[in-house]
Amino acid sequence: MKHVFFLFAFTALIACGEPVSAPLSKSTRVIPVKVAAVTEHTQRQPIVASGIVAHKETSTLSFKIGGIVQSIFVDEGDHIQKGQLIAQLAQEEIHARVSQAQSGQDKAERDLQRIQKLYLDQVVTHEHFQNATTALDVAKAELQIAQFNQKHALIRAPDHGRVLRRFAERNELVSSGAPIVRIASNEKHSVLRVGIVDRDIIHINLGDTATVTFAPYPNHIFQATVSEIAEQAHPQTGTFEIELTLKESALLKSGFIGHTTIYPSVQVAHYRIPIDAVVEANESTATLYIPDGDIARRVSVHPDDITNDHIVVHKTSNVTLTQVITEGTPYLQDRSLIHIQ
After folding, report:
1. Which of 166, 167, 226, 306 is the most buried (most CB within 10 A)?
2. Is residue 21 part of a domain?
C-alpha cells in the first residue's frame, strides 16, 4: 500500500510541473584551490654529473719491426723520463742487416767508379753508366731503411710520464707494430671525462669552472675547468662528452670515478616553483596545475634542480608560469572548474 502512495505522489509532482533537480557532474563541480606565485631568477644553475679520470695524452709504443724482445726496462706504474730506454729487440739480426746494406752501398760505389772510368774511355755505353748510378741510389736507400729499422728496434720514452700497462715480456717473439707498453704523458694534466645530457650541454662553455670530489679523498675538493666539449652525442649513451682538466692530478689514477658540479658562466633565466605544486614527478618530468581564468590547466615541466621547498625550471617560450595551484590539486583534472580562495 505504501508503494502505491509514493508512486502516486511522484506522479502528481510531475503532473504539477515541479522540477526535479539532478546532481552536478564531476566535470562541472567548482573546486576551491589556493595558488602561489612563481618567481623568476637569473642565475648560474649548477650541473651535477659523474665521470672517469683519464690521462689527457696516452701512447701505445711498439717496435717498427718484428723480432725477439731482448729487454724491457720498466714495469707498470714506473715513472719515466723523456728519452729513457724502455725496451729493445735482440740486435744480432738487425746489426747484420745494417752491415749487409752498408756492404751493398760500398760495392755500388766501387762499381759506379769503375763504370764511370770506362764510360769516359768510351768502353761502355751511357746505359751502363745510368744502371750503375741507379744501383748506387738503390743501395743507399737500402742502407737508410736498415738504419731506420735499427733505430726503431729500441723504444724510448717520448715524454716524461708514467707506464700504464706492459703488454710483453723478455724473450717473447713480437710482430711489427705489436703493443709493448702504454704510457701517459705528464706534460698535461689528467682530465675527467663526463657525459652530459642535451638539455644541459647547451649551457656549458669552454673555460667554465667546476669542482670534483673522489671517494679516496672525501675531504678534498679538486678544482677543474671545462677544456673540451663534444659536438656529437655518443651513439650508445646519447650523452655529450666533455673534458674537465683537473688542476691537481698527481694524487689521481686513471679510472678513478669523480663526482663533479659544473658552474656555467652564462646566466640563465629560471622559474622557481613551490614544491607543493608538484602532483607527479619522475626522473625528468614534473606535473603541476596552473590557473587559467576559472579553469585549471595541467602542464608538465622539466626540472633543472629540486630542493626541499621548490623546483627550478628553465624558462622557455612553451609554458609561461606566473602562478601555480598548491592546494586542492588531488581533486583536479585538466580543465577542471576552480575557485581561487
Report:
1. 226
2. no
What would the grid cell of residue 82 be? 723523456
Domain assignment present for residue 6? The answer is: no
Report CA Rg, the chain: 40
Cβ contacts of 160 within 8 Å, gap of 6 or more: 79, 80, 81, 82, 185, 186, 187
CATH number, domain at 116?
1.10.287.470
135 lies in which domain range? 92-149
**Is residue 35 a part of any domain in this protein?**
yes
Q: In a 3-state reduction of DSSP, which class is residue 220?
A: strand
Phi first, then psi: give them for residue 296, nearest 5 degrees. -105, 135
How many residues are recorded in the chain? 341
pLDDT per residue as tens, the chain (341 positions) = 434 333 333 333 333 444 433 444 444 689 999 999 998 887 777 889 999 998 888 889 999 999 999 999 999 989 899 999 999 999 999 999 999 999 999 999 999 999 998 988 888 899 999 999 999 999 999 999 999 999 999 999 988 888 989 999 999 999 999 999 999 887 777 899 999 998 789 889 999 999 999 999 999 999 999 999 999 998 988 999 999 999 887 788 888 999 999 998 877 788 889 999 999 988 788 999 999 999 999 998 888 788 888 888 877 656 788 899 999 999 999 999 999 98
**Beta-ladder partners of 291:** 296
* Kind and range of the H or E run holding 2: helix 2-15
Amino acid of residue 58: T
- What number of CA atoms fall less than 13 Å from residue 261's CA on the CB side? 8
- CA–CA–CA angle 83, 87, 92 (5° rounding): 115
Rounded Cα gap, residues 224 and 246, in angstroms = 5
332 in a structural domain: yes
Do 273 and 288 form a contact (C-beta atoms < 8 A)?
A: yes
Domain of residue 73, CATH code: 2.40.50.100
Residue 197, SS3 per DSSP: coil
Domain count, the chain: 4
d(C-alpha 193, C-alpha 54), whole Å: 7
Rounded Cα distance, 325 and 293, in Å: 12
* Global confidence as pTM: 0.57
